[in-house]
Amino acid sequence: SNTVKDKTANGIVLSGLRKDYGTGSLAVDGVDIDIAPGEFMTFLGPSGSGKTTTLNMIAGFEEVTSGSVVIADSDVSTQPAHKRDLGMVFQSYALFPHLTVEQNIAFPLKERKVAKSEISRRVAEALELVHLGDYGKRYPRELSGGQQQRVALARAVVFRPRALLLDEPLGALDRKLRASLQLEIRRMHRELGLTCVFVTHDQEEALFLSDRIAVFNKGKIEQLGTPSDLYNSPKTLFVAQFLGDSNVFTGVRSGATFQSGGQTWALASTEGPSEGHLIVRPEHVEVHPADALPAAGHNATTATVESSVCLGTYHRLELRFPDGTAGLAMAPARARDSAPAEGTEVVVSWSIADQCLVP
Ligand code: ADP
Ligand code: MG
């Protein structure tokens, strides 16, 4: 059923958003984000980085210290939460235990004085949306955690909110349920065309769900971009290390060369910080015998294989570089190859096009 699709999605614009709890450091320290109508935006970052506080300022559960929240071109910064017309889903399911599934989902419609016939139509539709058509008469305690979270999702969208805010909604579920709920959320977002703001500290979840991701660090946005922007072109060491694994070579740049641990490598450009980190993703590292010469357009170094594990499609090699830094290679495993054994000296190389230099 995609009959809920008649709702026009709304954009959310955050400008200079700050939150001071009076603790000596700002919980949110100047956040600017322009969330497009219908976009799936994820706030990703470690615990304490300001994601929930930012979401709560959008929702109206926290006052803004300064800055503004604009939804669909109107400034809601001082509006109470219930007037903002936003759907919310939290980690704890927060269902009413004494109400059935249907009554839970009907609740926001009753609050809004929607006509009875319309309520039953919309509740049925919302139950279909989350694939719980047969569960309307049950009580929350008669449902699994995943089913309860589906009910919470249905309740959050049944009144056709202007946007849906989700704060670590899958945090309490086990891995398998998380994966299936991630699919559900993705499908629901597509069917409803609803603007979604999703908070998580799980990078894989963020990569899977999002149109764009805002990476939070210490109350600020470290980088904002599509999953592939962030993975392939991290702008900072923090982003590179928070999203995926990386090999990190620390050193200095002069012109289009980079020196690190006594080695000199080529850079694609003469621009960039004069000191920084060269980032190479593990799947871009090619592993060769110790006497191999690097191909044109590649940088190379020697390394020792510290552990070697076949993961089916990949050999996962933990490496030690000559300067003592640890590294990682994910080399495609072909049936006839055997992975280099632990303790082997190898040459590893990567294309200059696949590395990136960050401050
Ligand atoms: P996240 O959701 O990214 O884990 P939060 O937004 O919850 O981070 O917290 C950001 C910072 O603000 C943290 O340092 C946290 O301790 C602090 N903080 C959050 N809520 C309050 C509060 N009510 N009073 C004081 N400090 C708070
Ligand atoms: Mg939080």
Short account of what is shown:
With 359 residues, this protein is an alpha+beta fold.
The distinct bound ligands, ions and cofactors come out as:
adenosine-5'-diphosphate, magnesium ion
Could you name the ranges where pLDDT drops below 50 across 5 or more consecutive residues? 1-6
Estimate what percentage of residues fall within beta strands: 25-35%
How many β-strand runs? Answer: 20
Helicity range of the residues? Answer: 10-25%
Spatial order of the strands in the main sheet? 6-7-8-3-9-10
Mean pLDDT: 94
What is the makeup of the main sheet?
6 strands, mixed
The outline comes out as elongated
Q: How many H/I helical runs?
A: 8
Work out the radius of gyration: 25 Å
| First and last CA, distance | 49 Å
| SSE topology string | EEEHEEEHHHEHEHEEHHEEEEEEEEEE
Structural class: alpha+beta
Write up this protein:
By secondary structure, the chain is an alpha+beta fold. Helices cover 23% and strands 33% of the residues. It is built from 8 helices and 20 strands. The chain has helices at 51-59, 101-111, 116-129, 145-157, 175-192, 203-209, 227-232, 237-242; strands at residues 12-19, 28-35, 40-44, 66-71, 74-75, 86-89, 163-167, 196-200, 212-217, 220-225, 247-254, 257-260, 263-266, 275-280, 286-289, 298-310, 314-320, 326-332, 345-351, 355-358. The strands form 4 sheets. A 6-stranded mixed beta sheet has the order 6-7-8-3-9-10, with helices on both faces. Strands 13-12-11-14-20 form a 5-stranded antiparallel beta sheet, with no helix packed on it. β1 and β2 form a beta hairpin. α2 packs across α3 (116-129), α2 (101-111) runs parallel beside α4 (145-157) and α3 (116-129) crosses α4. The longest helix has 18 residues, at 175-192. Mean pLDDT is 94; it is low at 1-6. The structure holds adenosine-5'-diphosphate and magnesium ion. Residues 21, 23, 27, 45, 47-53 line the site of adenosine-5'-diphosphate.
